[in-house]
Amino acid sequence: MHKSLKLITALSVAGLAVAAGSAFTGAGVTKTGTAALDQFVGGTVSQTVKGATLNKIEYGFVDDGTNTAVNKVTLTFADATGNRIPTLLLTGGAPATFTCTAIATADFTSECNAAASTSQTGVTSAAITIPEDS
Predict the structure, then answer these.
(1) Among 34, 50, 92, 119, which residue has the fewest nearby CB atoms (within 10 Å)?
(2) pLDDT 10s per residue in the chain (134 long)?
(3) CB 72 within 8 A of CB 114
(4) What is the dihedral of CA 92, 125, 95, 120, to 10 degrees?
(5) Would 113 be classed as within a structural domain?
Protein backbone atom coordinates (compact mmCIF):
# COMPACT_ATOMS: atom_id res chain seq x y z
CA MET A 1 0.00 0.00 0.00
CA HIS A 2 2.84 2.38 0.75
CA LYS A 3 4.33 1.73 -2.70
CA SER A 4 1.04 2.74 -4.37
CA LEU A 5 0.85 5.91 -2.33
CA LYS A 6 4.46 6.80 -3.18
CA LEU A 7 3.84 6.16 -6.87
CA ILE A 8 0.70 8.32 -6.89
CA THR A 9 2.53 11.07 -5.01
CA ALA A 10 5.48 10.90 -7.42
CA LEU A 11 3.15 11.07 -10.42
CA SER A 12 1.29 14.01 -8.88
CA VAL A 13 4.54 15.90 -8.31
CA ALA A 14 5.69 15.09 -11.85
CA GLY A 15 2.34 16.32 -13.18
CA LEU A 16 2.70 19.57 -11.26
CA ALA A 17 6.21 20.03 -12.58
CA VAL A 18 5.00 19.56 -16.15
CA ALA A 19 2.08 21.92 -15.60
CA ALA A 20 4.30 24.51 -13.96
CA GLY A 21 6.91 24.13 -16.69
CA SER A 22 4.38 24.76 -19.40
CA ALA A 23 2.92 27.69 -17.50
CA PHE A 24 6.25 29.39 -17.00
CA THR A 25 7.97 28.69 -20.31
CA GLY A 26 5.62 30.81 -22.41
CA ALA A 27 7.47 33.56 -24.21
CA GLY A 28 5.19 36.37 -23.12
CA VAL A 29 5.17 37.78 -26.62
CA THR A 30 3.30 36.43 -29.57
CA LYS A 31 3.71 36.63 -33.29
CA THR A 32 1.21 36.98 -36.04
CA GLY A 33 1.31 35.07 -39.28
CA THR A 34 1.33 31.43 -40.20
CA ALA A 35 3.99 29.83 -37.98
CA ALA A 36 2.66 27.45 -35.35
CA LEU A 37 4.84 28.61 -32.44
CA ASP A 38 3.92 31.86 -30.76
CA GLN A 39 7.21 32.77 -29.19
CA PHE A 40 9.93 35.19 -30.09
CA VAL A 41 12.70 33.30 -31.86
CA GLY A 42 16.10 34.05 -30.41
CA GLY A 43 15.21 34.58 -26.75
CA THR A 44 13.26 37.03 -24.69
CA VAL A 45 12.53 40.71 -25.16
CA SER A 46 12.35 43.09 -22.21
CA GLN A 47 9.62 45.70 -22.47
CA THR A 48 9.12 49.06 -20.79
CA VAL A 49 5.98 51.15 -21.05
CA LYS A 50 5.44 54.74 -19.93
CA GLY A 51 2.06 56.49 -19.82
CA ALA A 52 -0.35 53.53 -19.95
CA THR A 53 -0.83 49.91 -18.93
CA LEU A 54 0.12 47.48 -21.68
CA ASN A 55 -1.94 44.27 -21.69
CA LYS A 56 -0.46 42.61 -24.74
CA ILE A 57 2.25 43.06 -27.33
CA GLU A 58 2.37 41.06 -30.56
CA TYR A 59 5.37 41.03 -32.84
CA GLY A 60 4.84 40.52 -36.56
CA PHE A 61 7.66 39.17 -38.66
CA VAL A 62 8.80 39.24 -42.27
CA ASP A 63 7.30 36.12 -43.84
CA ASP A 64 10.57 34.28 -44.49
CA GLY A 65 10.12 31.37 -42.07
CA THR A 66 12.77 32.53 -39.58
CA ASN A 67 10.63 34.76 -37.33
CA THR A 68 13.56 37.01 -36.55
CA ALA A 69 12.93 40.16 -38.62
CA VAL A 70 10.29 42.29 -36.88
CA ASN A 71 8.29 44.52 -39.21
CA LYS A 72 5.11 45.09 -37.18
CA VAL A 73 4.19 45.43 -33.52
CA THR A 74 0.60 45.50 -32.26
CA LEU A 75 0.07 47.04 -28.83
CA THR A 76 -3.05 46.43 -26.73
CA PHE A 77 -3.58 48.63 -23.69
CA ALA A 78 -5.69 48.09 -20.57
CA ASP A 79 -7.85 51.17 -20.92
CA ALA A 80 -8.72 54.19 -22.98
CA THR A 81 -5.77 56.45 -23.53
CA GLY A 82 -7.47 59.40 -25.19
CA ASN A 83 -6.70 58.49 -28.82
CA ARG A 84 -3.00 59.20 -28.24
CA ILE A 85 -0.22 57.99 -30.55
CA PRO A 86 2.43 55.83 -28.89
CA THR A 87 6.08 55.79 -29.86
CA LEU A 88 7.94 52.50 -30.16
CA LEU A 89 11.68 52.03 -30.04
CA LEU A 90 13.15 48.55 -30.50
CA THR A 91 16.78 48.03 -29.57
CA GLY A 92 19.23 45.41 -30.75
CA GLY A 93 20.43 44.74 -34.26
CA ALA A 94 20.16 47.27 -37.05
CA PRO A 95 17.42 49.74 -36.06
CA ALA A 96 14.25 50.24 -38.06
CA THR A 97 11.84 53.16 -37.71
CA PHE A 98 8.35 52.21 -36.55
CA THR A 99 5.32 54.47 -36.94
CA CYS A 100 2.30 53.78 -34.72
CA THR A 101 -1.37 54.51 -35.28
CA ALA A 102 -3.48 56.37 -32.72
CA ILE A 103 -4.77 54.07 -30.01
CA ALA A 104 -8.24 52.91 -31.05
CA THR A 105 -10.95 53.80 -28.55
CA ALA A 106 -12.94 50.61 -29.23
CA ASP A 107 -10.28 47.99 -28.45
CA PHE A 108 -7.36 50.10 -27.14
CA THR A 109 -4.94 48.88 -29.81
CA SER A 110 -2.26 50.60 -31.84
CA GLU A 111 -0.41 49.10 -34.78
CA CYS A 112 3.22 50.05 -35.27
CA ASN A 113 4.71 49.32 -38.69
CA ALA A 114 8.30 49.51 -39.85
CA ALA A 115 9.05 51.81 -42.74
CA ALA A 116 8.30 50.24 -46.14
CA SER A 117 10.41 47.16 -46.91
CA THR A 118 12.35 47.40 -43.64
CA SER A 119 12.52 45.29 -40.50
CA GLN A 120 14.65 44.90 -37.40
CA THR A 121 16.50 41.73 -36.40
CA GLY A 122 18.25 41.01 -33.13
CA VAL A 123 15.59 42.77 -31.05
CA THR A 124 16.43 42.73 -27.34
CA SER A 125 14.05 45.32 -25.90
CA ALA A 126 11.01 47.43 -26.68
CA ALA A 127 10.40 50.88 -25.20
CA ILE A 128 6.85 52.19 -25.56
CA THR A 129 5.89 55.72 -24.58
CA ILE A 130 2.39 57.15 -24.53
CA PRO A 131 2.27 60.98 -24.56
CA GLU A 132 0.34 62.71 -21.81
CA ASP A 133 -3.08 64.17 -22.57
CA SER A 134 -2.81 67.67 -23.93
Answers:
(1) 34
(2) 444 433 333 333 334 333 333 332 233 333 333 333 444 545 567 778 888 888 889 999 999 888 889 999 999 998 866 689 999 999 988 899 999 999 998 899 999 999 999 999 988 889 999 988 75
(3) yes
(4) 90
(5) yes
Type of residue numbered 49: V
Please indicate, yes or no, whether the overall pTM of this predicted structure exceeds 0.70: no
What residues have CB less than 8 Å from 74, skipping those under 6 apart? 32, 56, 57, 58, 60, 109, 110, 111, 112
b/e sequence 75-86, b meaning 16+ C-beta within 10 Å: bebeeebeebeb
Is 18 a domain residue? no
